[in-house]
Amino acid sequence: MAYARDGAGLHRFTDAADGETYLAVHAGLDNAQRVFAAFDQPDLKAAITATVVAPRSWTVLGNGVARPAGPFVAADRARWELAATPPISSYLFTIVAGPYHSAGGEHRGIPFGLYSRRSLAGVLDRDADEILAITRACFDRYLEIFAEPYPFDSYDQAFVPELEAGAVENPGCVTFRDEFLFTSPGTQAERQFRGMVIAHEMAHMWFGDLVTMAWWNDVWLSESFATYMGFQVLSEATGFTGAWADFALARKPHGYDADQRPSTHPVAPGPAEVPDTDAALSSYDDISYAKGAAALRQLVAWTGWPAFIAGINDYLSRHRFGSATLDDLLDCLSRASGADLHAWAARWLRTSGVDTLAVRQDGRPAGPGLVAHAGGRPHQVWIGVYDRAPGDAAELVVRARFPVTVQADAGEVALPPAAVEPPPALLLPNDGDVSYCKVRFDPRSWAALTSGLGRLPDPLSRAVAWNAARDLVRDGELPARRYLGLMAAHLPAETDAAIAGAVLGFARRTIADRYLPRPQRGAALADLFGLCETLLGRAAGEDPGGIRQVAGHGLIDSASRPDDVAMLRSWLGAGRWPGRPDLDSRLRWQIVLRLAVLGAVGRAEIEREAGQDPTAAGQHSAARCRAALPGLDAKQSAWTQMFGPDVADEPSSYQLAATAEGFWQADQADLVAGYVPRYFPALADVAVRRGPAVARVLVKHGFPHHAVAAATLRAAEQGQAGAPFPASLRRLLADQLDDLRRALNVSSASG
Ligand SMILES: [Zn+2]
User: 251, 193 in Cβ contact below 8 A?
Assistant: First the structure.
């Protein structure tokens, strides 16, 4: 079989930094057959053995422990034998080989190695203690939770180059994309996210690997469970106690967005709806991860944690080293909880769309307080009741949180009298974010939030409020400018980096670039720049959560005026910035990109920067910057790489994605206007000539997001009609179009 360059099968990568070669197998979903003859059906499990012949100086890893097996094949080659696995599915097979650097050792008698390519050795060594501490703590917690012992003979974690997925749960040998080894010290939010991914993949060792879905329609179950457990176990077992706020802000909005697009689908599709692996690939989406995990969190609110875990353990022991279905799991959970959960699942997992919970109060003493329910799902929620603090009307203090059960078909639920007597300033539906729903406010509550959102004491309450504001903007019920006003009022005092990052990101990428009429964009960028400057000005001692790092990234991306450019140039020249002592390569590239977009650096400076950073990440960054330069030559050259005729050496998908990301810039709308109508026919052409994988990269990373205009929509609709796209590509494009329609609605209402 040939080596792969697209991440599917046995991927081969040569490190630009030192010329070393690295291999890793990614067998999911149906790519094991690109490495050896295999059935690609998840319930056909087998013990797998492998023998590897490779350069003597290499490290070889796999699902089973690899042992050198003499004699040497040749002077410079050696042979390894990988221990036979227990029965596993073919999509979970891996081999990792190359001159890998390693750290780690053993835990509880099991190999616990960490691996990176040599050019990232310094980064791995810097972060190894943290990664290993998280790994050990989560492992010990899972051993407490699960009755089944750890099922495999090792727990290696390899950070491999150019992995398409974020990480893959290969039994005994998890692979991570090596961007998780942050070349600059990661922000708090990035390190927390990495910790969650570690905990997520580890949950799969039991749920997914020990017991596997019988067919691809239950991909969601494996991913929802691992996502739920990843956040839960990380917050229980490590210092990342804010993990659920991160879920609320960084993951759940994607679930809500996906659930309101035409392509939405029930969390749990039937087997006939997922006929093949191409359809299954589409299941690795925000419904499966974000909504599915939120649904499981809500399920635990109904069953309680002990019954939930008892049901899970029953399921794992009944089906160990085999496969099972959602009904098998519901049977186990129903027995353990004493409640028939099939009816709950029919409402939550077999239907699509988002319910809405709205609070109402009329403000009269002893007047009624209500939760109005639109939708068909049952909810266990908390309603937060807040009063204005005496002496400081902007401060909101919690009176109580009332548990409320909303039955599936209930239209209204009355709140207890203590919740509305005396009338509170704010009723916050779904306080604590335990359910998955839209929330809406009565005018009195919204007024209290407008003045006091930032003063809600619990980050999860603030997360619910910020998500509600985002949702109101997307639904055209709150002008986009008002969101910027909320941000200006409440972010300067924010202490949670996940909240600051989510709010700044939505304001910058969605509101400024897509929702505001173009004439208002410059003022919005200037406001964002000023706000980030304020946050960056905090004393180090006042910033335990890492807000300054988030603000620094936001500031760079919002620079637009000559003075802003001068500030970035001075940082680049000095090699220092206020957020951290050293300007490392990642930050340097972020600044160079912004300066390139604004035409404040040229090709020569990009090449000089690339010369100082020969890593793969540096090469990708340079490609992004070249494509972002505001000249017709630069645009035409990037366009040729994206859509040009077949090239003998197809760029890696990372390289292609970087070029595509650089190409379209809202700041250059006039310059790239002529390319927008050409994008759609070119995409259809590429899908035929260079394959759907290349076309998917160009839709994910190369869609003209900034071009919010009716003409773009018309061109897209024409380009899509009749194009020979496979289902997964058609859906990616349809989702982009739906976002474009929404942006058109919001921006025309904001004009
Ligand atoms: Zn997963």
Answer: no
Question: Using CA atoms in the order 340, 341, 346, 351, what is the torsion angle rounded to 10 degrees?
Answer: 160
- Token pair for 319: 């089906």
CA angle, residues 439, 440, 443, in degrees to nearest 5: 155
SS3 of 18-67: CCCEEEEEECCCCCHHHCCCCCCCCCCCECCCEEEEEECCCEEEECCCEE
Listed in sequence order, the residues at least 6 apart from 241 whose beta carbon sits closer than 8 Å to its beta carbon are 235
Strand duo 9-14 + 21-26: pairing: antiparallel
Among 162, 201, 223, 494, which one carries the catalytic annotation?
201
Query: What is the pLDDT at residue 671?
Result: 97
The pLDDT of residue 614: 81
Q: DSSP strand E in 304-411: where?
A: 322-324, 356-361, 369-374, 379-389, 392-406
Question: DSSP letter string over 519-577?
Answer: GGHHHHHHHHHHHHHHHHTS-GGG-TT-HHHHHHHHHHHH--SHHHHHHHHHHHHHT-B
The CA distance from 84 to 434, in Å, is 42
| C-alpha 488 – ligand 1 centre gap (Å) | 37
Which CA distances in Å does 594 have to 127, 536, 561, 655? 29, 18, 12, 19
Report how far residue 144's alpha carbon sits from residue 96's, in angstroms, rounded to the nearest whole number.
30
pLDDT in the model for residue 525: 98
Q: What is the pLDDT of residue 238?
A: 96
Going from the Cα of 496 to the center of ligand 1, the distance in angstroms, rounded, reads 26
Q: 227 C-alpha to center of ligand 1: Å?
A: 7
Reduced to 3 states, what is the DSSP secondary structure of residue 354? coil
| d(C-alpha 262, C-alpha 431), whole Å | 29
pTM recorded for the entire structure = 0.92
Cα gap 166→180, rounded to integer Å: 9
**Does a cis peptide bond (omega within 30 degrees of 0) precede residue 306?**
no
Vertex 256: Cα angle to 381 and 291 (nearest 5): 70
Question: Alpha carbon 60 to chain centroid distance?
Answer: 30
> Annotated catalytic, 201?
yes
User: Which contacts qualify for 634-641: CB closer than 8 Å, 24 or more apart?
Assistant: 634/603, 635/663, 635/671, 635/672, 635/675, 638/662, 638/663, 639/663, 639/675
| CA 581–ligand 1 middle distance (angstroms) | 36
Ligand 1 centroid – CA 226 distance (Å): 6
Residue 695 tokens, joined? 């076309």
CA of 218 to the centre of ligand 1 (A): 12
Spatial strand order in the sheet of 412-414? 412-414, 369-374, 356-361, 438-440
CA 122/CA 145 separation, integer angstroms: 35
Query: Rounded CA gap, 728 and 718, in Å?
Result: 19
Q: Sign of torsion, CA 165 169 172 174?
A: positive
Q: Are 138 and 98 in contact (CB under 8 A)?
A: no
Residue appearing with tokens 């996906």: 258
Measuring CA to CA, which residue among 121, 157, 116 is closest to residue 22?
A: 116
Low-confidence ranges of the chain (pLDDT < 50): none
Backbone phi, then psi, for 261, in 5-degree steps?
-95, 160
Cα–ligand 1 centroid distance for 611 (angstroms): 37
Q: Contacts from 738-743 at CB under 8 Å and sequence distance 24+?
A: 738/261, 738/262, 738/263, 739/257, 739/261, 740/708, 740/712, 740/713, 740/716, 741/713, 742/474, 743/510, 743/514, 743/515, 743/708
Alpha-helical regions (H) of 575-709: 585-597, 603-612, 616-628, 632-643, 653-663, 669-672, 676-689, 692-700
pLDDT at res. 13:
95
Site of tokens 């494009």: 733
In whole angstroms, what is the distance from residue 638 CA to residue 631 CA? 11
CA distances, 545 to each of 144, 456, 495, 664 (Å): 30, 17, 6, 33
C-alpha of residue 175 to centroid of ligand 1, in Å? 11
Contacts of 343 (CB under 8 A, 6+ apart): none
Query: From ligand 1's centre to the CA of 37, what distance in Å?
Result: 25
**What is the SS3 assignment for 399?**
strand
